[in-house]
Amino acid sequence: MSSRTKIVVLHMKEIIYTVIFAVLAILLILLLVFMFFPGDKKESGSSGKYKAGVYTSSLTLNNTDLEVEVSVDDSGISSIRFTNMDETTAAMLPLAQPAMEDIAEQICQSQSLDNLEFSADSAYTSQVIVDAVREALKKAEK
Prior knowledge:
single chain, 3-stranded antiparallel sheet, membrane, transmembrane
């Protein structure tokens, strides 16, 4: 009885490629499991943060009362505007409307009141408007 010894030659490159592909396959499987695993999914963004509707708050600039209207829909904050801004008030407060438009654009784009940039000309006016928007959004919270 002669036993023949079989020698298997493995190239190191083949072993490394096999290990890399096995690790990638495991990572892909884990990724798919975590993506499609039916579990408690927390809603990200502001869609679950506010109730849909129109909310108002008031502010006073230069002894003039203004109403800030914040519209919230299912996808988040959709618009912010002054409701009682007439021509006389706009003439008395020339920086109020441009500041409101700038702030409304930033908030609707970022869906957040954090990290807003104010113009140096209307920093105080912008801060008062943001405080009024914050007050209106407190009414909208679930």
